[in-house]
Amino acid sequence: MIKINLLPFRTIRKKENIRRQISILFLTLVLVLILLVYYNFILGSKIQEINTKVGSTKTEIAKYAEINKELAEIKTKLDILNKRLDVIKGLEINRYEPVRLLDAMTNLIIPKRMWFVSFSSSGQNVHISGIAIDNQTVADFMTRLEGSGLFRVVNLNTLKKNMGMPKWASFKNFEISCTKNTPKIIEKSGAKNK
């Protein structure tokens, strides 16, 4: 019988198997290495993109913060201007008040029966001193003051006989204090400020 030695064939086959496995291992390692490099490149580009977005967002935030600061300054200036306008409106409303008050007094006085000695106005209070022929004239004048709508409260402070006159003349000295009605325009602007 013939004997064949198969040993070299098996070793060659074994060597070829080992070579194939090593080549598969190297190819797998190369493929894994290529995938890792590609994934690293993608992550690096995403990180770069996010960093640019963060940088642009920070510049926008800084820009908007500057705009907010300017808006706050404009708002405070606008508030100051509105307060000044309110003061000017109040002055404009009260500008003709003394003239109107004196004009109203000339219409309310009882001619040839009474005279003013002094007339003063401060804020909402008006103080009138005068001389009248009799008590009825003072009462009529107070009724006219109350009916005029200019005053909320009309009080008679003093009414006394004038001692500096002759006995046949019975003139009366009087002092009246009044509280003015506030104009509706001032009340509306005051309600807005509250």
What would your notes on this structure say?
With 194 residues, this protein is α+β, with helices and mostly antiparallel strands. It folds into 2 domains: 1-95; 97-193, General secretion pathway protein M, EpsM (Gyrase A, domain 2, 2-Layer Sandwich), CATH 3.30.1360. It is 64% helix and 19% strand. It has helices at 7-95, 97-108, 135-147, 184-193, and strands at residues 114-122, 125-132, 151-161, 172-180. A 4-stranded antiparallel beta sheet has the order 1-2-4-3, covered by helices on one side. Strand 1 and strand 2 (125-132) form a beta hairpin. The protein starts with 6 loop residues before the first helix and ends with a helix. Residues 185-194 have low confidence and may be disordered.
Q: Considering DSSP H and I runs of 4 or more, what fraction of the residues is helical? A: 55-70%
How would a crystallographer describe the biggest sheet? Answer: 4 strands, antiparallel
Order of helices and strands: HHEEHEEH
* Highest-level CATH class of the largest domain: Alpha Beta
Number of strands: 4
Q: Distance between the terminal alpha carbons, to the nearest Å?
A: 126 Å
CATH fold naming of the largest domain: Gyrase A, domain 2
Structural class: alpha+beta
Mean pLDDT: 85
Question: How would you summarize this macromolecular structure in one to three sentences?
Answer:
The chain is an alpha+beta fold.
Attribute tags:
194 residues; four-stranded antiparallel sheet; disordered C terminus; alpha+beta; 4 strands; single chain; 4 helices; Gyrase A, domain 2
